[in-house]
């Protein structure tokens, strides 16, 4: 298969050249301050038919107070406060059905798996999380990538990243959880939200034990738009094909949500993964974010894989990496 990006030796040296907005910190400090309302967490026990895991339906107040849904999975018969893994999902995915879960509770840890507002259509399940602010967005290409993209104030991912920070605060507040052992993870869009949550967590007073972004999305937007040939990035091209002359306006908005910039602000250890044949999240854009991470870091490289990345191989690596940090 032909290579879709730079050779590995050049990927290691690649850096994003797009300057971050001068007011990036002010923008996110203000956004989080405007959404510093009560978490209003509600938990309700769910019968999944599983005997080794306890599951709770969770609702909390996200951006603008909108209700965000999640599942909380706990090892049955747990005692004391547990480490917790907070998980976000890929584009169009969601928390799914309550018996669908990653192996975290079977490893002895709490697992909070969080909906992305306005998505979940490919996963199904129950009680999806709507995006009440999407109705106010102007005309956009179908999907989420261009919803409200005319301005950083109205862009879809402003709400999503804020929801993610609030989810970390929820996890740390739960009586079943040790607030000093909170770890965040996700793949693709979930990987992007993981980076954003880790970068913004210090502004919200959340101290993370680690972050595991897997083949992350929403990094180095300008390069991604140049070389990504599959996945959601082409939604932006399709939008600009109709709205001629809005290119720089849109790119300016996207720059506030570029995880190359937010990665610089993360303070916790990280385990990235990258796939060198990925046409959805080009490897150079993943390396661009990885290069800016200032804390302890490592990256798993899947040389012959596309956007699926390491899958079970990466999951095994994450379990070992998380165990070393969570106990």
From TrEMBL:
Matches recorded under InterPro entries: AB_hydrolase_fold, AXE1_dom, CE7
SUPFAM superfamilies linked: alpha/beta-Hydrolases (SSF53474)
UniProt GO MF annotations: carboxylic ester hydrolase activity
Region of interest: Disordered: 118-147
Catalytic residues (positions): 188 (nucleophile), 278 (charge relay system), 307 (charge relay system)
GO biological process: polysaccharide metabolic process
Protein name: Alpha/beta fold hydrolase
Binding site for substrate: 91
A Pfam family the protein falls into: AXE1
Gene3D superfamilies to which the protein is assigned, alphabetical: alpha/beta hydrolase
Entry keywords, A to Z: Hydrolase
